[in-house]
Protein backbone atom coordinates (compact mmCIF):
# COMPACT_ATOMS: atom_id res chain seq x y z
CA UNK A 1 0.00 0.00 0.00
CA UNK A 2 2.78 2.46 0.92
CA UNK A 3 5.86 2.72 -1.28
CA UNK A 4 8.13 2.87 1.74
CA UNK A 5 6.80 -0.40 3.10
CA UNK A 6 8.25 -2.13 0.09
CA UNK A 7 11.64 -0.63 0.86
CA UNK A 8 11.81 -2.59 4.06
CA UNK A 9 10.36 -0.47 6.83
CA UNK A 10 8.53 -3.44 8.23
CA UNK A 11 9.07 -4.45 11.79
CA UNK A 12 9.38 -8.21 12.41
CA UNK A 13 6.15 -9.57 13.85
CA UNK A 14 7.88 -11.21 16.78
CA UNK A 15 9.53 -7.92 17.70
CA UNK A 16 6.22 -6.07 17.55
CA UNK A 17 4.59 -8.69 19.76
CA UNK A 18 7.39 -8.72 22.30
CA UNK A 19 7.96 -4.99 22.49
CA UNK A 20 4.34 -3.87 22.61
CA UNK A 21 3.03 -6.58 24.91
CA UNK A 22 1.86 -4.55 27.92
CA UNK A 23 2.52 -7.45 30.30
CA UNK A 24 6.25 -7.52 29.46
CA UNK A 25 8.95 -5.05 30.44
CA UNK A 26 11.66 -4.93 27.78
CA UNK A 27 14.57 -2.52 28.17
CA UNK A 28 14.33 -0.95 24.74
CA UNK A 29 11.77 1.54 23.52
CA UNK A 30 10.30 1.14 20.05
CA UNK A 31 8.58 3.92 18.18
CA UNK A 32 6.41 3.29 15.13
CA UNK A 33 5.39 6.37 13.22
CA UNK A 34 3.04 7.45 10.52
CA UNK A 35 3.44 10.91 9.02
CA UNK A 36 0.80 12.48 6.85
CA UNK A 37 0.98 15.83 5.09
CA UNK A 38 -2.26 17.55 4.18
CA UNK A 39 -5.62 15.85 4.36
CA UNK A 40 -5.17 13.56 1.42
CA UNK A 41 -1.45 12.82 1.15
CA UNK A 42 -0.22 9.24 1.27
CA UNK A 43 1.07 8.50 4.76
CA UNK A 44 4.73 7.67 5.20
CA UNK A 45 5.71 5.07 7.78
CA UNK A 46 8.90 4.27 9.63
CA UNK A 47 10.10 2.90 12.96
CA UNK A 48 13.04 3.49 15.29
CA UNK A 49 14.27 2.14 18.61
CA UNK A 50 16.58 3.53 21.23
CA UNK A 51 18.83 0.56 21.75
CA UNK A 52 21.65 1.28 19.27
CA UNK A 53 21.87 4.87 20.26
CA UNK A 54 22.21 6.87 23.47
CA UNK A 55 19.30 8.98 22.38
CA UNK A 56 15.77 7.99 23.33
CA UNK A 57 13.52 6.76 20.52
CA UNK A 58 11.50 9.99 20.55
CA UNK A 59 14.64 12.08 20.03
CA UNK A 60 15.79 9.82 17.17
CA UNK A 61 12.41 10.44 15.60
CA UNK A 62 12.46 14.22 16.05
CA UNK A 63 16.11 14.67 15.02
CA UNK A 64 16.37 12.12 12.22
CA UNK A 65 13.12 10.72 10.92
CA UNK A 66 11.01 13.85 10.87
CA UNK A 67 13.77 15.95 9.28
CA UNK A 68 14.13 13.41 6.46
CA UNK A 69 10.58 14.11 5.46
CA UNK A 70 9.79 17.56 6.78
CA UNK A 71 7.68 20.02 4.88
CA UNK A 72 6.82 23.39 6.34
CA UNK A 73 4.11 24.29 3.90
CA UNK A 74 1.29 21.92 4.72
CA UNK A 75 -0.33 20.70 7.87
CA UNK A 76 1.26 17.54 9.13
CA UNK A 77 -0.30 14.87 11.28
CA UNK A 78 2.03 12.45 13.03
CA UNK A 79 0.94 9.29 14.79
CA UNK A 80 3.43 7.69 17.16
CA UNK A 81 2.97 4.23 18.66
CA UNK A 82 5.39 3.98 21.57
CA UNK A 83 6.20 0.81 23.48
CA UNK A 84 6.94 3.01 26.55
CA UNK A 85 5.41 6.40 27.31
CA UNK A 86 7.77 9.40 26.97
CA UNK A 87 10.04 10.24 29.92
CA UNK A 88 10.04 13.80 31.30
CA UNK A 89 12.90 14.92 29.01
CA UNK A 90 11.28 13.50 25.89
CA UNK A 91 7.92 15.08 26.76
CA UNK A 92 9.76 18.38 27.02
CA UNK A 93 11.54 17.84 23.68
CA UNK A 94 8.29 16.94 21.92
CA UNK A 95 6.64 20.11 23.22
CA UNK A 96 9.64 22.22 22.16
CA UNK A 97 9.50 20.65 18.73
CA UNK A 98 5.79 21.43 18.46
CA UNK A 99 6.40 25.08 19.36
CA UNK A 100 8.78 25.25 16.42
CA UNK A 101 6.41 23.38 14.10
CA UNK A 102 2.97 24.88 14.55
CA UNK A 103 1.75 23.05 11.44
CA UNK A 104 2.23 19.68 13.19
CA UNK A 105 -0.13 17.69 15.40
CA UNK A 106 0.85 14.43 17.09
CA UNK A 107 -1.17 11.46 18.29
CA UNK A 108 0.91 9.61 20.90
CA UNK A 109 -0.35 6.12 21.71
CA UNK A 110 1.57 4.20 24.35
CA UNK A 111 1.65 0.49 25.16
CA UNK A 112 3.05 0.98 28.68
CA UNK A 113 3.62 3.77 31.14
CA UNK A 114 7.25 4.52 31.94
CA UNK A 115 8.16 4.95 35.66
CA UNK A 116 4.90 6.52 36.73
CA UNK A 117 6.11 6.87 40.31
CA UNK A 118 8.44 9.64 39.19
CA UNK A 119 6.70 12.96 39.62
CA UNK A 120 8.58 14.54 36.69
CA UNK A 121 7.36 11.83 34.29
CA UNK A 122 3.78 12.42 35.43
CA UNK A 123 4.19 16.15 34.91
CA UNK A 124 5.64 15.59 31.44
CA UNK A 125 2.61 13.53 30.43
CA UNK A 126 0.22 16.15 31.79
CA UNK A 127 1.99 18.90 29.87
CA UNK A 128 1.81 16.83 26.68
CA UNK A 129 -1.87 16.17 27.24
CA UNK A 130 -2.59 19.86 27.76
CA UNK A 131 -1.07 20.79 24.40
CA UNK A 132 -3.67 21.42 21.72
CA UNK A 133 -1.22 19.81 19.25
CA UNK A 134 -1.13 16.49 21.13
CA UNK A 135 -3.55 13.63 21.54
CA UNK A 136 -2.16 11.26 24.18
CA UNK A 137 -3.69 7.90 25.05
CA UNK A 138 -3.01 4.24 25.83
CA UNK A 139 -2.94 1.81 22.90
CA UNK A 140 -6.18 -0.12 22.68
CA UNK A 141 -7.14 -3.21 20.73
CA UNK A 142 -7.83 -1.26 17.54
CA UNK A 143 -4.32 0.23 17.69
CA UNK A 144 -2.72 -3.21 17.99
CA UNK A 145 -4.66 -4.33 14.95
CA UNK A 146 -3.66 -1.21 13.04
CA UNK A 147 0.04 -1.63 13.88
CA UNK A 148 -0.03 -5.28 12.87
CA UNK A 149 -1.61 -4.38 9.53
CA UNK A 150 0.53 -1.35 8.85
CA UNK A 151 3.99 -2.02 10.23
CA UNK A 152 4.50 -5.74 9.57
CA UNK A 153 4.81 -7.54 6.27
CA UNK A 154 1.44 -8.95 5.18
CA UNK A 155 0.58 -12.59 4.90
CA UNK A 156 -0.18 -13.83 8.38
CA UNK A 157 -3.53 -13.32 9.97
CA UNK A 158 -3.74 -10.88 12.85
CA UNK A 159 -2.07 -12.52 15.80
CA UNK A 160 -1.55 -9.89 18.39
CA UNK A 161 -3.56 -11.61 21.00
CA UNK A 162 -3.83 -8.91 23.60
CA UNK A 163 -6.97 -10.78 24.60
CA UNK A 164 -4.84 -12.20 27.42
CA UNK A 165 -3.53 -8.77 28.16
CA UNK A 166 -6.78 -6.90 28.30
CA UNK A 167 -6.33 -6.49 32.03
CA UNK A 168 -2.92 -4.88 31.50
CA UNK A 169 -4.40 -2.51 28.93
CA UNK A 170 -7.16 -1.56 31.36
CA UNK A 171 -4.62 -0.97 34.15
CA UNK A 172 -2.73 1.38 31.83
CA UNK A 173 -5.93 3.14 30.74
CA UNK A 174 -6.93 3.74 34.35
CA UNK A 175 -3.43 4.74 35.42
CA UNK A 176 -2.96 7.25 32.59
CA UNK A 177 -6.32 8.76 33.44
CA UNK A 178 -5.23 9.06 37.09
CA UNK A 179 -1.95 10.71 36.04
CA UNK A 180 -3.66 13.18 33.70
CA UNK A 181 -6.16 14.10 36.42
CA UNK A 182 -3.18 14.56 38.79
CA UNK A 183 -4.67 12.16 41.32
CA UNK A 184 -1.67 9.93 42.12
CA UNK A 185 -0.69 12.01 45.18
CA UNK A 186 -4.23 11.98 46.60
CA UNK A 187 -4.62 8.26 46.01
CA UNK A 188 -1.26 7.51 47.64
CA UNK A 189 -2.31 9.64 50.62
CA UNK A 190 -5.50 7.69 51.08
CA UNK A 191 -3.32 4.55 51.08
CA UNK A 192 -1.12 5.86 53.93
CA UNK A 193 1.32 7.35 51.46
CA UNK A 194 2.44 3.92 50.42
CA UNK A 195 4.13 3.40 47.08
CA UNK A 196 2.06 3.14 43.93
CA UNK A 197 2.25 -0.65 44.16
CA UNK A 198 -0.77 -1.06 46.43
CA UNK A 199 -3.18 1.12 44.37
CA UNK A 200 -1.83 -0.60 41.26
CA UNK A 201 -2.61 -4.01 42.75
CA UNK A 202 -6.19 -2.88 43.44
CA UNK A 203 -6.61 -1.46 39.92
CA UNK A 204 -5.29 -4.72 38.51
CA UNK A 205 -7.65 -6.90 40.55
CA UNK A 206 -10.60 -4.83 39.26
CA UNK A 207 -9.22 -4.84 35.74
CA UNK A 208 -9.04 -8.62 35.77
CA UNK A 209 -12.76 -8.70 36.54
CA UNK A 210 -13.48 -6.20 33.78
CA UNK A 211 -11.32 -8.10 31.31
CA UNK A 212 -13.60 -11.08 31.73
CA UNK A 213 -16.66 -9.16 30.66
CA UNK A 214 -17.74 -9.51 27.04
CA UNK A 215 -18.34 -5.79 26.75
CA UNK A 216 -14.73 -5.00 27.56
CA UNK A 217 -14.00 -4.98 23.85
CA UNK A 218 -15.53 -1.55 23.97
CA UNK A 219 -13.03 0.44 25.90
CA UNK A 220 -15.15 3.55 25.89
CA UNK A 221 -17.65 1.60 27.94
CA UNK A 222 -14.88 0.87 30.41
CA UNK A 223 -14.22 4.56 30.93
CA UNK A 224 -17.45 4.92 32.88
CA UNK A 225 -16.54 1.89 34.95
CA UNK A 226 -13.01 2.89 35.73
CA UNK A 227 -14.21 6.17 37.10
CA UNK A 228 -15.76 4.05 39.85
CA UNK A 229 -12.37 2.36 40.44
CA UNK A 230 -10.73 5.76 40.82
CA UNK A 231 -13.43 6.88 43.24
CA UNK A 232 -12.89 3.74 45.27
CA UNK A 233 -9.13 4.34 45.40
CA UNK A 234 -9.70 7.89 46.60
CA UNK A 235 -12.07 6.79 49.34
CA UNK A 236 -9.94 3.87 50.48
ZN1 LIG B 1 12.87 9.72 26.90
Written description of the protein model:
- This protein is an alpha/beta fold and 236 residues long.
- It folds into two domains: 161 residues, Cytidine Deaminase, domain 2 (3-Layer(aba) Sandwich), CATH 3.40.140.10; 75 residues, no CATH class.
- 48% of the residues lie in helices and 14% in strands.
- Strands 2-1-3-4-5 form a five-stranded mixed β-sheet, with helices on both faces.
- Helix 4 links the parallel strand 3 and strand 4.
- Helix 9 packs antiparallel against helix 10.
- It starts with a helix and ends with a helix.
- The N terminus is likely disordered.
- The structure holds zinc ion (ZN).
- Zinc ion (ZN) binds next to helix 4.
Keywords:
single chain, 236 residues, binds zinc ion, five-stranded mixed sheet, disordered N terminus, 2 domains, alpha/beta, Cytidine Deaminase, domain 2
State the gist of this model:
The chain has 236 residues and is α/β, with parallel strands linked by helices. It is built from ten helices and five strands; from the N terminus they run ααββαβαβαβααααα.
Low-confidence stretches: 1-8
CATH topology grouping of the largest domain: Cytidine Deaminase, domain 2
Shape: globular
The average pLDDT score comes to 84
Assembly category: single chain
Q: Give me the secondary-structure category.
A: alpha/beta
Output the CATH homologous superfamily of the largest domain.
Answer: Cytidine Deaminase, domain 2
Number of domains: 2
The proportion of residues forming helix, as a percent range, comes to 40-55%
Main sheet makeup: 5 strands, mixed
Using the CA coordinates, give the radius of gyration. Answer: 18 Å
The helix tally amounts to 10
Number of strands: 5
Percent in strands: 5-15%
Just name the CATH architecture of the largest domain: 3-Layer(aba) Sandwich
Which CATH first-tier class of the largest domain would you pick? Alpha Beta
**What distance separates the N and C termini?**
52 Å
Bound molecules: zinc ion
Question: What is the string of helix and strand elements?
Answer: HHEEHEHEHEHHHHH
Strand sequence of the main sheet, in spatial order? 2-1-3-4-5
